Amino acid sequence: MKYNFAFDILFGTDLFDKTMMEKEVDHYIEVMEEFGVPLDSRSSISKSDWQLFVCTLTKDPKKKQKIYSAVAKYLRESPSRVPFSDLYFADSGVHRDFQNRTVQGGIFILLLEKEGLRGD
Predict the structure, then answer these.
(1) Are 88 and 101 a contacting pair, CB within 8 Å?
(2) What is the Cα–Cα distance from 57 to 70, expressed in whole angstroms?
(3) Domain segments of the chain: what residues?
């Protein structure tokens, strides 16, 4: 996932083409598994905070919802009953190693996008 593009959006630097970002989001939706988008093609491992970061790459609310709904499903249905894990398997919803970490503050990135950092 190219989650760092989110900061191009938030800070309005426009370093990357918006059409390319939309294509990235479309690809993430294509490869999405039951509980979210895998980090890459080597495994179904995913990061909940990074998934919310990639939601900022599209203006389409349906695409955003498709991605963040999978994270919400993970929270509701994961067989791992641990504090909110940011690292888990997107195919099974089983957490891996991390839980209740401060990186989860990243899930609020859509609020930053909505409120805007540039004052517009």
Answers:
(1) no
(2) 17
(3) 3-115
Structure tokens at 72: 């919400």
Judged against a pLDDT cut of 90, whether residue 115 lies above it is answered with no
Question: 76: exposed, middle or buried (C-beta count within 10 Å: 0-12, 13-18, 19+)?
Answer: exposed
pTM of the model: 0.86
**DSSP-derived 3-state class of residue 80:** coil
* DSSP state for residue 47 in the 8-state scheme: E
Long-range Cβ contacts of 112-119 (<8 Å, 24+ apart): 112/10, 113/6, 113/9, 113/10, 113/56, 117/10, 117/11, 117/12, 118/11, 118/12
50 neighbors 17 (Cβ within 8 angstroms): no
Write down the pLDDT at residue 11: 87
CB–CB of 72/34 below 8 Å? no
Calpha distance 23→29 (Å, rounded): 10
Return the pLDDT at 116: 65
Which amino acid makes up residue 114?
A: K
